[in-house]
Amino acid sequence: MAAADRINTLPSFVSGSITIHYYDGLSDDLLTAGVGQDGLMDAPPTATDPENPTPAEIRRATIINQYKALVDLRPKAGYGTLYGPAAPDRFSTPSSDGKVAGKEYIAYADDGSGQKNVTMMVQIPDNFDRANPCILVAPSPGSRGVYGAIAVGEWGLKNRCAVVYTDKGTGIGLHDLNTDTVNRIDGTRGTVAEVGTDANFIAQGTAEIGLATYNARYPFRLAYKHAHSQQNPEANWGRDVLNAIKFAYYILNIAENFGLVSGSEVLRTITPENTIVIASGISNGGAASLRAAEQDERGLINGVVVSEPNINPRQLPEKQEFSLKQGNKIYPNSVHGKPLFESITYYNIYQPCASAGTEIAFGWDPAKGKPENGGFLAGSPGRCTALRDAGLLNGNTLEEQIAESQKLLNDFGTLESTNIIAHLYNAAFVYAAIAPFYGNAYGRFSVVDNLCGYSYAYSDGSNPPSAKPNADLANDFSSSNGIPPSARTNLINNFGNNGAGVNFRYSVDANNNLDEYLQGALCLRQLATGTTGVTTDTGTSLSGEAANYCDRIQAGIEEILASGNLQGKPTIIIHGRDDALLHVNFTSRSYYGLNQKIEGENSQLAYIEVLHAHHLDALNQAFDIDTQIPLHYYLGKALDRMYDHLKNGTPLPKSQVIPTKPLASTGGTQLTIEKNLPDIDSDVTCTIAFSDNVLHIPECGSCS
């Protein structure tokens, strides 16, 4: 290291002040906000003044809510024994309650404009291993705030590593146009005039429409940072992760931590030369870490371990194409590797119909069939009728329309094993939420653009939007995933209620079908295909404003495509085969194949596909699902393997399918490693291989 590089200097991108808090591991802590492993299973404490919670109250509620949002907290699923704050793992024995004492530093990364304000946070446990320093990098999943990856950070804190988090410029940034209030970095709220450049996010109008004009025409609307920042945050996720690592090194080396005071200077003792850095993450966070590894020119990252990444692999030229093969089924290059906007807009059209005959109920595993005590429909019969009226389905009966919709979805390139889980995702409005949200982000649209007639607001039933209550605004930072419908913010069809707006769920078309705003879904789909049809080979080419909007979105997607070049970095990707959001054929499988084509023998990427696992472990708890296993368990195991490899030189795992056995298939009262959760590289796993331009993925169980 050059002498100048040894001097610890504040990175130029750090904006404003750095806040620091110490948590004693008793009344409060880094991992559980003072409630311990058992307390995470309970609802967070209510603020003394719900409309004006304190920063400490917000932090506690946020950690609890964000942990619960990612993890299956049922003891029978392994929480508390196989994973969780107090569960021992290969290299650590945590405290009995899982609490971790230490320091927490928070700051913005910005370019001086106050418009980016990416939140970064470094947690240093009291027992940080100075002799064997390590840093775990945990970008937030989804559009969550900086505490969104707290369940990922758990591994680092338990293993005496510093953990650095970044919200990667996506959340939670909520601008209520009605009250003109915004979030500060700590989740408290104030008016734009009060908060200024300390705001997480301030919405902007356009040259044609200012915020005041828009608010008068569309009252009570809400703007969200990821969707409405007009910056396409995803384009910068890799940089945000690398900046977070640089920030972590700075914090670790300040004088009060591990810096060496030498006269008027502080020298670094924790450096890339003596520190293990593992970039991790779930979903969007996983994609951010992969993108960072691709862009890491300074060797800041030693290894990568991600779960179910929202990675959008670039397509190779025709002569370099490859196919996926699972069992006897082949998915050609034209089918796999679809970008998220391409797949989500298609699902947003047909899944509401595919789920229209499925009843579900909380506490009832949908794999068992119709709930014994009744439930609610996961989909929309009105959407089926509307699709038939639009000539997008041929079936005459509801049953025929449901079956046809399901076939269209599977023919699109998705696995049949995802179909049951997709009903739950549809009922949670996952597809309806993501399609307009990401369209706004990729196209760099303002809240005033009302892309495809959508907006966001609080509303009651089928009534027009109204003011979001102050207590709900105050609670949004801690409870929201950043993508409405969430935290009592609804997705609005602006044309409903004679132009006053209606929750999209209550949209009625011209034929009086309760169709969940098919018009908006088709508009978004056209911006994906570039035609007036639902596929690129149907309809006619877009023109005018629609063509311009399509070009903007496609340009944004081009900015976020992954190269597949991990520069030889040791990497493990974990993905559940039954993921009904980020389908394996469109994401991890395709990315792995791309990496093999790009890096060849220099690749150190292992792809591990887990049977009976999907994208949202928390739904296993909500619906008491015993036909799926918690994927989060295997993220911890993969982190153990990577740490062992980087520290001790043990081999990386092979690419493989892990044939788990859910509790429903083995019986018993709790998942066990012996019966249900085979270890990585155990004898029952089935090898994934890439040869002759084909990625071979065995069904597994029979290893065919």
From TrEMBL:
Record's GO cellular component terms: extracellular space
GO molecular-function terms, A-Z: hydroxybutyrate-dimer hydrolase activity
UniProt KW RNA-binding keyword: no
Top-level taxon of the source organism: Bacteria
One Pfam family per UniProt: 3HBOH
Sorted UniProt keywords: Hydrolase
InterPro entries: AB_hydrolase_fold, OHBut_olig_hydro_put
Keyword Hydrolase: yes
Signal peptide: none
One record GO biological process: butyrate metabolic process
Parts of the chain that traverse the membrane: none
Protein name as catalogued: Hydrolase
